[in-house]
Design brief:
The protein is built from five helices and five strands. The protein is an alpha/beta fold. A five-stranded mixed sheet has the order 1-2-3-4-5, with helices on both faces. The two termini are 18 Å apart.
Length: 149
């Protein structure tokens, strides 16, 4: 999924979110809260390798979602430090390392956040079987973002 695809689908969660998709080095210096962002691990001079999501609530508490369960990379960590009093991230890998559904995971995570769900309530949907999880998130994604059009 490329940047334009992510923007198009993010707009379906709420029209104001359409432009909240960034390369790692293009995150805004500061942001208004609440904020919902999808960001790539790569800088804008690279093709893009993996999508992650960032959410900051009205109390300046941030969440970093990576379907591989990794901690924030440098650019994302700097953004969180500038914009949050504190933050956390998921630690469990839910995506298979050989698939490319990170964009679907990020969009579904932000949809759940937009509906008021916690990061735990989202990640608890998934199992330790990452291939099964990838099929499940693809079905969830299609149900909300594709079939509802």
């Amino acid at each position: 999924m490329d940047t334009l695809d992510v923007q198009q689908h993010l707009k379906k969660i709420h029209p104001s979110l359409e432009n909240n998709v960034y390369a790692a080095n293009r995150l805004p210096m500061y942001t208004h809260v609440p904020t919902y962002i999808i960001c790539n691990l790569d800088t804008d001079d690279k093709p893009g390798s993996h999508w992650v999501a960032l959410y900051i609530d009205t109390n300046d508490v941030g969440q970093y979602f990576d379907s591989y369960g990794r901690s924030p990379v440098r650019y994302h960590l700097e953004f969180l430090k500038r914009n949050c009093k504190r933050w956390n991230w998921n630690v469990d890998r839910i995506q298979n390392e050989w698939t490319s559904v990170c964009g679907e995971y990020c969009l579904m995570y932000l949809l759940y956040k937009f509906q008021g769900c916690s990061i735990h309530s989202f990640t608890s949907i998934f199992t330790r079987n990452t291939l099964y999880n990838d099929i499940l998130v693809d079905e969830m994604f299609r149900s909300y973002f594709i079939d509802n059009n």
